[in-house]
Amino acid sequence: MRIICIVIILMSLCVSCKKEYDHHGRTPLVELDGRFLYYDEVQAVLPLSLSAADSAAFVEQYKLNWLKEVLLMDKASRNIPNNAEIDRLVENYRKSLIAHTYQQELINQKLADEVTEDDLLAYYDAHQSLFKAERPLLKGLFIKVPLTAPQLSQLRRWYKDTTQVAVENLEKYSLQHAVKYEYFYDKWVSIGDILDWVPYDEDELNSYLSKRQSLELKDTTFYYFLNVLDYRPIGAQEPFEFAQIQVKDILLNMRRMDYIEQVKNELYEEALENNKIKILQ
């Protein structure tokens, strides 16, 4: 029913159009010097959640914006002294866009298979100087509870204990009492992630981490417990597990560039063989 209302609204907003224009079955809404805004163009951007009244208002505003943009373009076209330069820039952009789109299609077809972990490890080992920690990295466990949370003495023992039994106790406890619980003994995270969890700035947290493995912090509302299993300061070697996403991006980019250069060379050689290239000077 809503779609029917929108169609009726849009049809009612359509201005009369000269008969000599062939709209190829499209419904024009407004004309400016032989240029038309069509119903399907507005429909493509019309939010589905709008009521019939809001849809009418949206269409009116869209028509007004379209008319202003066309008028501005007309004014600009008349006042730009060097249209040839604009045409050249547009054509260059068009060529670049076509080439880029084609390259992406080639890459998607040719490089669809991901690089192997052996490839990643080989590159990481050969270029370790590229992968230094820009911010501290750590493995650990974090739990945040209200000041009124029960069993705090047990919680203080559990969060420092890395055994499976202690972790299971913490997980059960967190389901009922924790505001936030993060287990990351098995992966590296940046200190930036930790900063999202505690009411301290980076310098304060770095100072804590450089001196002790387990931290208990407190504000007026919550306790914050952090146990650090492993820690890498700024400038330390990034672990492979942490660096591998960056390594993969580097390798894929290198392979993309190599492949595109190979395609260019093959096309050039083919053109030479077919006598398509003529050196005139």
Structure report:
- This protein is an alpha+beta fold.
- The protein folds into three domains: 2-73, no CATH class; 91-115 and 243-271, no CATH class; 133-232.
- The chain contains ten helices and six strands.
- The strands form two sheets. It has a four-stranded antiparallel beta sheet. A two-stranded antiparallel ribbon has the order 1-2.
- Helix 5 (117-126) packs across helix 10 (240-273).
- It is flat.
- The chain starts with a helix and ends in an 8-residue tail after the last helix.
- The tally of structural domains comes to 3
Residue-averaged pLDDT: 85
Tally the helices.
Answer: 10
Order of helices and strands: HEEHHHHEHHEHHEEH
Q: Find the structural class using helix and strand composition.
A: alpha+beta
The largest β sheet comes out as: 4 strands, antiparallel
Strand order of the largest sheet: 4-3-6-5
Gist of the model:
The protein is an alpha+beta fold and 281 residues long. It has three domains: 2-73, no CATH class; 91-115 and 243-271, no CATH class; 133-232.
Give the SSE layout.
Blueprint: H1 2-13, E1 28-32, E2 35-38, H2 39-43, H3 52-79, H4 83-110, H5 117-126, E3 137-146, H6 152-158, H7 164-177, E4 180-190, H8 191-195, H9 202-209, E5 214-218, E6 222-232, H10 240-273
Antiparallel strand pairs: 1-2, 3-4, 3-6, 5-6
What characteristics describe this protein?
281 residues; alpha+beta; four-stranded antiparallel β-sheet; two-stranded antiparallel sheet; 10 helices; 6 strands
